[in-house]
Every structure is written in C-alpha cells, then in structure tokens.
C-alpha cells in the first residue's frame, strides 16, 4: 500500500474500531508548496485510496462490515463521478468540433443555475462549520475568505484528475509490489 495511514484506518474500522475527528488534536503538517508537489501528494493519496478500496472490496459485502458501507458508497460515487465528468468533458469538446446527436451533445460544463446555487450553499455551510471548528486555532482566517469560493472547484478538479490517473494505474499494476516513499516538496525551506 502506498498510503499506510488509509490502509491502517480501514483495517481498524473493519475490525470494529471507531475512528473519530478530534478538533483539539494539534499536529504540525508540512504542505506541498508547489503545484507539482500538490499533484504528487494527491496522486499518491488517490492511488492509496484505490488500493485500499480494491483490496477490501470483497470484505465490504459481508453484513459484519455494514458500518463501512457509507465509506464504500462515498468512494464509489466519487470515482464514478470522476469518470462520468471526464466523459462529459470529452463529449463537450466533441460537440464543439462536430455535430453530435442531441442525447450526446453537451452544451455546458457548468451545473444548471439551481443546482449550482445548491452546490454553492452546501459549500458555504461546510466552510462555516469548518471556520467554527477552527476558530480557536486560526484567528486570522477571515482574511482568506475571498479565496474560499475557489477552493471547491480547484479541489474537485485536482481530485478528478488524480482519480483518472490513479485508478487505472492501480487496476493494471502488478499485485503485491512494494511501495517506495519519495518525500514530496513539503516545506521548501530547510528546517
């Protein structure tokens, strides 16, 4: 497994351990400071998620692991969404280059007004909740609120692209190969 933390958390949950978010837990995390570093990190996470998902797929269908079904459903829907959106982008480009049947032509990549408004509202509610949770530790977070509106689009596009690259990579790779850690560019400056 390329991401041992995801693997361990799934193993614990499959053995009926509970894993919770603890807002008072503090840790120091170095984040990638370049787009290339962010891409490598997210690609590794997407590949690790796909590996853990595929390794545990059969076990998930047993009743004793029904607690994992929401996680299974979320991962399956996210992966299906990535491939469906990629097909939508392809059909959008093709419909600009040549005439397509009405049932295949895609005229816009943006969601309809009402759906877009609902997505925006849900995003805003999630950010309000996260700001509430982090208010003790992040005192000056309000300064970055302008950039918050772009986060979901950038996050979803990076997730989309890394899933499209990682999932097929996991499907065709030789099983039981050992992972090799290559440290990303976290923290450009020396510590």
From TrEMBL:
Keywords assigned by UniProt, alphabetized: Glycosyltransferase, Membrane, Transferase, Transmembrane, Transmembrane helix
> InterPro entries under this entry?
Glyco_trans_2-like (IPR001173), Nucleotide-diphossugar_trans (IPR029044)
**Short name of one Pfam family:** Glyco_trans_2_3
Q: Name one GO molecular function term.
A: glycosyltransferase activity
Domain Glycosyltransferase 2-like, chain residue ranges per copy: 2-144
SUPFAM superfamilies linked to this entry: Nucleotide-diphospho-sugar transferases
User: Membrane-spanning residues where?
Assistant: 68-94, 114-133, 145-167
Q: Give yes or no: UniProt keyword Transmembrane.
A: yes
What EC identifiers does the entry list? 2.4.-.-
Family according to the record: Belongs to the glycosyltransferase 2 family.
This one is known as Biofilm PGA synthesis N-glycosyltransferase PgaC
Which species does the entry assign this protein to?
A: Klebsiella pneumoniae IS43
| Taxonomic path | Bacteria, Pseudomonadati, Pseudomonadota, Gammaproteobacteria, Enterobacterales
